[in-house]
Amino acid sequence: VQLQAYGGGLVQAGGSLRLSCAASGSIFSTNVMAWYRQAPGKQREWVATITSGSITSHTPSVKGRFTISRDNAKNTVYLQMNSLKTEDTAIYYCRISGTSVWGQGTLVTVSS
Fold first, then answer.
1. Which residues make beta-bridge pairs with 91?
2. Count of CB atoms within 10 A of residue 112's CB?
3. Whole-angstrom Cα distance, residue 52 to residue 50?
4. N or C, fewer C-beta in 10 Å, the chain?
5. CA–CA separation, 99 and 88 (whole Å)
6. Average pLDDT over residues 2-22
7. What is d(CA 68, CA 39) in angstroms, rounded to the nearest whole number?
């Protein structure tokens, strides 16, 4: 099982980015998927989760700005990030929830 995260980049505060995480080698549609992030000098934190039935949850600091979604036909989970703030700057990781399977991370930098 492998996860590949991509879509990060440099964006100005108030802008948007969409992260993608492509899965291979697993029955993707049955997995609960999650996004995490790790800001410089901080611990990794949970951002959002989506179940196999597309029930979602988001950490309070991103609720209303970020949206997790999935496309089982493409074996891909997304994180749409709007109204980005400088404090959203971090490396973003996808994960199969409850497992040790992580993507390699994609860097999001939000400038003021």
1. 38, 107
2. 7
3. 7
4. C
5. 25
6. 97
7. 19
Flag whether pLDDT at 16 surpasses 90.
Answer: yes
Whole-angstrom distance, CA of residue 12 vs CA of residue 109: 8
Residues 6+ apart with CB under 8 A from 27: none
Q: Kindly report, residue by residue over 50-106, the tens digit of the pLDDT.
A: 999 999 999 999 999 999 999 999 999 999 999 999 999 999 999 999 999 999 999
b vs e for 27-58, b when ≥16 Cβ sit within 10 Å of the residue's Cβ? ebeebebbbbbeeeeeeeeebbbbeeeeeeeb
Q: Residue 28's pLDDT band (boundaries 50, 70, 90)?
A: confident
- Angle at CA of residue 103, ends 17 and 109, nearest 5°: 35
Between strands 9-12 and 106-111, the pairing is parallel
